[in-house]
Give the backbone structure.
Amino acid sequence: MPVCVSVRSRAAVGAALVLCLAVAPRVANAGPVLLVGFAEKNGTQLWLPGIGWRFPVALGERAERVGQSWRLSPRLLIEPSVAAIAGDASSIEAQLVPMLELRPRNERSWQPYGALGVGLAYTAVHGLRLGSELLFSDQVEAGIVTSTSSGHRLSLAYRFRHLSHAGLWARTNSGLNAHFLVLSLE
């Protein structure tokens, strides 16, 4: 089945990307995220190259104390992103996902980290029986992070993402799993 991308869909994703890029340079410690993903559903292989921005948000003293007691360094991240969907047909997606990142409290040059989050995604792909264009984006990420000589954070990670509407607004709810390689600089 051909994929239809409406002008309204393209305009919404384009406006979201412009807004993120306009706001991002003004937010301290925010930085770009490059994503390359792969998904397969009903014999259709999809490639998902994308770009996003990570905005760290202060957690507060209580969360910091809990993190210290567990010898972890917690961070809350807000990550808007857009991606092309390339496969049998082409389309686009956009998502906004808050994530909780945890990493050990130590001074090693390379540190492991993990992150998880649940947010909202819009996808203009049709024909995969997702049941809706508005979906939940559940994701888990594991990777390594280091500090560069200029003081930036550089991370490389694997991300598993599941898109689904959880049965809330349609009967069809087969979901879509995707695997991503994620590179970020903050």
